[in-house]
Amino acid sequence: MAHAPLMTLELALQQLLEQVVVLPDTETVNLLQADGRVLAQDVVSALHVPAQDTSAMDGYALCCDNVHSSDGALPVSQRITAGSETVPLQPHTVARIFTGAPIPEGADAVVPQEECELAGADASQRPVVQINSVPIPGQWIRRAGEDVTRGSVVLARGTRLGAADLGLAASVGMASVKVVRRPRVALFSTGNELIMPGTVTPQEMPPGTIYNSNRFFLHHLLTRLGCEVTDLGIVPDDLDATVHTLRAAAQGHDVILTSGGVSVGEEDHIKPAVQVLGSLDLWQVAIKPGKPFAYGRVAGAYFMGLPGNPVSSFVTFLALVRPFLLRLQGVQDVAMHTVAVRADFDRPQADKRQEFLRVRRNAQGGLDLFANQSSGVLTSLAWGDGLLDNPPSRAIVYGDMVRYISIADLL
Ligand code: AMP
Ligand code: MG
To answer: Is the pTM for the entire model greater than 0.85?
Structure first.
């Protein structure tokens, strides 16, 4: 059989993303439930944050000129705590003030309490403070709107909400946000050899069988990317069973994701089964691990088929399925970003394909390589914290700067 030509990951990703239509449905969710969700609208601030000038220190609010034109000893005429209202500052006095409290009208600086000392009382029994530094107008004042100005877009549509985003949305008064609905994904694994852990003990595993590991990391990855997962379990290597499951999966799901069965052996039924119900392209993507990847449509659902080898499945998911699922939710920047990190190992043998090596950052700021880079060795991913994105035909010499992808950053 003629081999399909290898396709670069870049081209595969581009073709895949061209197919995506962002889910049109939105829902409003409480901010506490919005973690990882993608904004369906801009969040615009209806106020300045801070709303008014506030103190950045515990100390004294004053008018600098009053200090410069005196011996620096000034009476305390009011006390302003965070959350309180102010009255204008009486000339030639200071206000005792605390962090976050509003600056009174007439004051133009705050002197931290460490730079002041109490110096008795004046004739009206008001405490007097001696200012021991030369204040500069504006010092230790957080200006109104210095964080957010009224009317500005604080979070743009398409933002995937992380911890800081949720805090920022709350700071402008949002209790809930409009987000794109979760993609509904049907997941199944193919393979006669697969057994679900928990159903057969390790001692009783029939010869030639293995536990289904892909289901567990794929379920996790999908969930982390905001999807609602329907787990359809294991489907045997049989055309009818595959067609039957695919037909059921197309109902009520946006995406069908499978692992295994996308090679072109007689026991690989994904391709013919999808072709019975819809359309399918089988791509040979020039990445290692990985390579076979199936993309198509079954009724109204997108179909994506990952290779069965666990590490191939995992890496192909990150490289192709993850960007697809994020784009489906309206995220623009779906790339796997790399940072330059030093390789603390040699890897003389280069591969013709773009390789994603399993690596881990070490305490010296470099990368260590997992010894066994076989696509079946899931330990390499559990041991590692990232992937080294190595261009085709590039040998690595100890000390080289290489491209590192943090897996945690992708999720
Ligand atoms: P396939 O892509 O179906 O040819 O499978 C390639 C290799 O990955 C075979 O050794 C399979 O046994 C293994 N494999 C396939 N699916 C899974 C799975 N869900 N969990 C663990 N290994 C798998
Ligand atoms: Mg198989």
So the answer is: yes
Domain interval for residue 383 = 339-410
The answer to whether residues 264 and 234 touch, using CB atoms and an 8 Å cutoff, is: no
Q: Residue 1: pLDDT band by 50, 70, 90 thresholds? A: very low
Please tell me what DSSP assigns to residue 269. -
Task: Mark whether 128 and 164 lie in a shared domain.
Answer: no
Please name the residue that has the structure tokens 């690596």. Answer: 359
Domain count along the chain: 4
Is residue 1, in this structure, part of any structural domain at all?
no
Q: What is the pLDDT of residues 266-284, one digit of tens each?
A: 888 999 999 999 999 888 9
Q: Ligand 1 pocket: which of 195, 259, 314, 375 to mutate (most atoms <8 Å of CB)?
A: 259
Ligand 1 neighbourhood includes 330 CB (under 6 angstroms) = no
Question: Could you tell me if 193 and 310 lie in one domain?
Answer: yes
C-beta atoms surrounding 128 within 10 Å: 16
Residue with CA nearest ligand 1 atom 14: 308
When pLDDT is averaged across residues 33-54 and rounded to a whole number, the result is: 97
CATH number, residue 38:
3.90.105.10
Ligand 1 atom with the shortest distance to the CA of 213: 20
Are residues 198 and 297 both part of a single domain? yes
Best mutation site among 194, 258, 317 for ligand 1, i.e. most ligand atoms within 8 A of its Cβ?
A: 194
Whether 136 has a pLDDT exceeding 70, the answer reads yes
Contact present, 97 and 49 (Cβ < 8 Å): no
